[in-house]
Write a structure and sequence with these properties.
By secondary structure, the protein is of the alpha+beta class. About 45% of the residues lie in helices and about 25% in strands.
Length: about 190
């Protein structure tokens, strides 16, 4: 069983126009199967800071130990953090920055990614640093807000291509349980 195949069953209640004898509104209940989403909302900022934390030791090593200029130290720290980050994800599921934010990387089977997959997703993270600009136009009722351009970093492309997931450490046990339940259902 794969994480991408897991379903989340939800009951949606919709109000009708009818009322019962006590005057309470009658609701219809519908059950839907949604794809299970192991990630969490707002992880882009944490992942960006985690990547910068991963690059910081290498930046300092190149700057202070090897005496390189700051720009060169920054450029050299990028491939160093990518390679070292891939190795850390294979063995521990997280890098230094991810450990600080208590997030881990899982593949589609709920395990830490192998070396090739981890290298692939870490090289693709360079494309994640490309900012996405969106125009924000407030609703007409929000007269105190002004039109602005927002800049966001889309941190999901490498995970989408590699079929990996960024999850909080406390959610790993839930994911493993769901995978085990689905595996035992399939075996029956």
């Amino acid at each position: 069983m794969k994480i991408s195949e897991l379903k989340d069953r939800r009951i949606i209640r919709r109000a009708t126009r009818q009322f019962d004898q006590m005057g309470y509104r009658i609701y219809n209940s519908f059950e839907y199967d949604f794809p299970y989403n192991p990630t969490y909302k707002g992880n882009e900022r944490e992942r960006l800071f985690a990547k910068l934390i991963d690059m910081l030791p290498f930046f300092l090593i190149y700057l202070l130990l090897f005496g390189k200029m700051a720009v060169l130290s920054f450029l050299y720290s990028i491939p160093s953090a990518i390679i070292f980050g891939a190795l850390c994800e294979v063995f521990w599921g997280a890098t230094l920055g991810k450990s600080i934010f208590k997030i881990k990387v899982l593949d589609d089977f709920g395990n830490y990614p192998n070396l090739l997959l981890s290298l692939k997703r870490n090289f693709l993270c360079l494309a994640n640093f490309w900012p996405v600009f969106t125009d924000y136009i407030p609703p007409t009722t929000h007269t105190w807000e002004k039109e602005t351009t927002l800049m966001n970093f889309s941190m999901h492309m490498n995970n989408t291509i590699c079929k990996t997931y960024i999850v909080k450490e406390n959610k790993i046990e839930e994911i493993k349980k769901l995978l085990y339940q689905e595996k035992t259902k399939a075996a029956q």
